[in-house]
Amino acid sequence: MVLVLSLMALTGCIKPTPPATAEPGLRITVVALAEGAGAAEVVDTPARFDSSILDVLALRGLTAELVEGGRLGPVSAARESSLRVERLRGDFAEGAMLLVETRPGYYAEMNGQYRWVVGVTLTLSASQSRPNQTVEFDVPVFLRYHHQREADAVDAAGGVVARRVGELADDWLRAAGG
Hints:
By secondary structure, the protein is an alpha/beta fold. The chain is built from five helices and six strands; from the N terminus they run H-E-E-H-E-H-E-E-E-H-H.
């Protein structure tokens, strides 16, 4: 059975599922933030990280608006995802909202590179009447130089995070469509 599936995959019989597409004009607010080294510090994520998330959402036909860190206000003080979503819902109550939280942390030096682990929490809040969808995962990344820090670790995790955002958006769009 495994041999048959392997041969089918090699010959192109198994095709990946295409991304779900949204209704025209469906908007989503994206809030991406990184918890800094300080206990109460929340900073913006790198621009390349943000654009990878926006690109994945645009591929699904979603009109995404990125909220800059300066507009967050009291969200920075909240440490739990549910509290952050609740406070953001007050400011951005219309439409869907995606909260991307990253927590980069240095792990160890391995084989001349610096290993970091970026903890990620994705929370999709479609409306106040539907429950939030939350996904948590860790992304291990290797940085080449000692001077590279939190922002570089988050940026290096961008591809994996964007793929998981796409999977979450696909699940949400398919559930809403049928």
